[in-house]
Amino acid sequence: MERLLDIMRRLRAPDGCPWDRDQTHESLRPYLLEEAAEATDALAGGAGPEFVAELGDVLMQIAFHAAIGEEEGTFTYADVEDGIIAKLKRRHPHVFGDVKVESSEEVRDNWLKIKEEEKRERGELGQEADIPASLPALMRIREAHTKAGLRAPAGTQLPAKTERELARHLVDLVLAASGHGLNLEVAVRDELAERLGETR
To answer: Could you report the per-residue pLDDT of 179-190, keeping only the tens digit for each?
Structure first.
């Protein structure tokens, strides 16, 4: 990682690359999302060379932000690494402690309990659900279902029985809305935020 950080420092140097020097945490936000999405797409074709290359692009974004943090004196790559190592040890007491588990479901339950305790210690319990606002609308809805317990109104009927049939209905609905100049991505995100009681 130090070799990559050295390259980012060189690119950000006064005699480095003008574009790289101009970037900020904020300006890099879309690239972080884009690179993660491209890595996900590449994985659909298997964990081959294309996936490896896309993971490199994701890693570059981490190095980029770490270099900026280092310049600003707010954090370093070591802080990022130390933070995730501590979290992994804390969230896996069945590996690094004496907790006993029998299944993946127990691991997940423990993970959520530990996460809740961490939020309580930080005084964040009872605040907005921990669902990234940058997720695509459908992924956010699923996260709201699993993390915040959001449910469809009683009596809601599915117009089809299989995922593929439901997907066809959904795609047709989005296409029809688009044909009327409506942006359902934005509308769905706003509706979900309202149901979650989020402030925008």
So the answer is: 999 999 888 988
Grouping H, G, I as helix, E, B as strand and the rest as coil, residue 133 is coil
Helix (H, G, I), strand (E, B) or coil at 24: coil
- How many residues belong to the chain? 200
Residues 117, 123, 127, 128, CA torsion sign: negative
Q: Which domain holds residue 27?
A: 2-78
Query: Could you tell me if 26 and 67 lie in one domain?
Result: yes
Q: How many structural domains is the chain composed of?
A: 3
- Does the pTM surpass 0.90? The reply is no
Q: Are residues 146 and 99 in the same domain?
A: no
28-59 pLDDT per residue, tens: 988 998 999 999 999 999 999 999 999 999 99
CB 10 within 8 A of CB 16: yes
Q: Is residue 96 part of a domain?
A: yes
CA dist 150 and 178 (Å) reads: 27
CATH number at residue 65: 1.10.287.1080
- Please tell me the distance from the alpha carbon of residue 111 to that of residue 104, in angstroms, as a whole number: 10
Task: Output b/e per residue, 31-67; b: 16+ Cβ within 10 A.
Answer: ebeebbebbeebeeeeeeebbeebbebbeebbbbbbb
Q: Are residues 39 and 71 in the same domain?
A: yes
